[in-house]
């Protein structure tokens, strides 16, 4: 049996402002594990703001807050492969809203 393939990369949605960190482990055409995380630059440091993954045995989105807390939401968009693709497209499309929410929360603290 072939070993699972692992891959990691960044999508620079706005250089120096926002990036998406992607990684997966797959066997043949099936994604086994994945993480897709939006990170924003603030005060010369990358801050994770939203993360999709399938840890804990189910696909979900973690909305991350500057105080370290997070809100977990189950995501149902098909199988793991479809959820992985959905996560990348969601963060590519909606990164500015996630960034604005996170920066507003930082200023409220």
Folded structure, characterized:
This protein is α+β, with helices and mostly antiparallel strands and 109 residues long. It has one domain (5-108). Helices cover 27% and strands 48% of the residues. The protein contains 1 helix and 6 strands. It has one helix at 80-108; strands at residues 5-14, 18-27, 30-42, 45-53, 60-64, 70-74. The chain has a 6-stranded antiparallel β-sheet with strand order 1-2-3-4-5-6. 23% of the residues are buried. The model has no long low-confidence stretch (mean pLDDT 95).
Count up the helices: 1
Shape: globular
Record field, number of beta strands: 6
What is the mean predicted local confidence, pLDDT?
A: 95
| Largest sheet descriptor | 6 strands, antiparallel
Helix-strand topology string: EEEEEEH
SSE layout:
Elements: E1 5-14, E2 18-27, E3 30-42, E4 45-53, E5 60-64, E6 70-74, H1 80-108
Antiparallel strand pairs: 1-2, 2-3, 3-4, 4-5, 5-6
Keywords:
109 residues; alpha+beta; six-stranded antiparallel β-sheet; 1 helix; 6 strands; 27% helix
How would you sum up this structure in a few lines?
With 109 residues, the chain is α+β, with helices and mostly antiparallel strands. The chain has one helix at residues 80-108, and strands at residues 5-14, 18-27, 30-42, 45-53, 60-64, 70-74. The chain is globular.
